[in-house]
Design a protein that fits this description.
mainly alpha; 0% strand; 72% helix; 11 helices; Mitochondrial carrier fold
Length: 341
């Protein structure tokens, strides 16, 4: 098995574990990012009391009103997306590093590593954006439906008072992956599955910055350490965990506004009753957010995102490194075995 294949499988395994562990945090954070509040609209979907809720209060509110399973809405699609995303990213990244190393006959520098990481990220974004559009839809669908149903229930209540007949057509139906895909296609066609691809491509700088910081720290840490019997530098899982945390923290602080814009473009666009809450593209979203919500809207939910991203990255790096070590140990063991006569 090639180094690129090992990196792809290990990256996918680490990404899946990190996604499962941190998914509830991701769901709440996506809802925070896509909350749209215009102070001049008295009937906006997010009331001042809701907007000022702490993260813990938002968790409790979702569990009480929608059930614990709502925190895992879209997890299946997310796992598929994570496996493909991490597999593609680490596979392309390792192939690029191997090619650059073989060409230069020496270890590649920071700038080359950054360029390889950026290229890997672009390939990953273009291939997996449709999956993440669906995941974002599933994470925010109940939030959007609840606001819409609130308006419709008011109309249904008036209808019942006037006629004496209860209209049951406004009951919320369970959201499925197939339903989200069909709705997305109906709303925006095939190109709709690449909504938010521009900020996502710009956000390629996030993992690029993350890897640059991680590898710089790892190189400094391992520079004076000796190889162990298995041929690896003595780096503990806890040390990798800490390096991954620091690297992701730095990258998240720089690129978070792009993530908010991407999430808003990919979420259902009928949240709210005002055109100022709906976006036709990236530049339109930026202009309307600045005009109607202020610059702080670009940092909604950043505290929770930092916790989720840092924890997920640390788990991913730690798991990936351990899986890579295990894979090479197994490969060496198999090579050492003698075939039966």
């Amino acid at each position: 098995m090639s180094g690129a294949a090992v990196a792809a499988v290990a990256g996918a395994g680490g990404g899946i574990l990190a996604q499962v562990v941190t998914y509830p945090l991701q769901t709440v954070n996506t809802r925070q990012q896509t909350e749209r509040k215009l102070l001049r609209l008295p009937d906006a979907d997010v009331t001042p009391s809701e907007a000022s809720k702490t993260t813990l209060q938002q968790f409790i509110k979702i569990i009480n009103e929608e059930g614990p399973s709502s925190l895992y809405q879209g997890l299946g699609s997310s796992i598929v997306g994570t496996a493909l995303s991490q597999g593609i990213y680490y596979g392309v990244y390792q192939m690029g590093r191997d090619w650059a190393t073989n060409k230069n006959k020496k270890s590649i520098g920071t700038l080359t590593s950054l360029a390889v990481a950026a290229l890997s990220g672009c390939v990953n974004v273009l291939l997996t954006t449709p999956i993440w559009v669906v995941v974002t839809r599933l994470q925010t669908e109940k939030q959007a439906r609840k606001a819409k149903l609130r308006r419709l229930s008011e109309a249904a209540g008036r209808y019942e008072l006037e006629t004496g007949v209860r209209d049951r057509s406004f009951v919320e139906k369970p959201v499925t992956t197939a339903g989200a895909v069909a709705e997305m296609y109906k709303e925006a066609g095939l190109l709709g599955f690449w909504k938010g691809v521009l900020p996502a491509l710009i956000m390629v700088s996030n993992p690029a910055i993350q890897f640059m910081i991680y590898e710089a720290l790892l190189e400094r840490l391992t520079a004076k350490r000796r190889l162990n019997k298995a041929g690896f530098k003595n780096i503990s899982a806890s040390e990798v965990f800490m390096l991954g945390s620091v690297a992701k923290l730095g990258a998240t602080l720089v690129t978070y506004p792009l993530l908010v814009i991407k999430s808003r473009l990919q979420a259902k666009q009928d949240i709210g009753t005002d055109d100022s809450l709906q976006y036709t593209g990236t530049l339109d979203a930026v202009a309307k957010m600045v005009k109607h919500e202020g610059f702080l809207s670009f940092y909604k939910g950043m505290d929770l995102k930092i916790v989720q991203s840092v924890l997920a990255a640390a788990i991913l790096f730690m798991t990936k490194e351990e899986l890579v070590k295990l894979a090479f140990v197994l490969l060496r063991s198999n090579k050492g075995r003698k075939l039966p006569a």
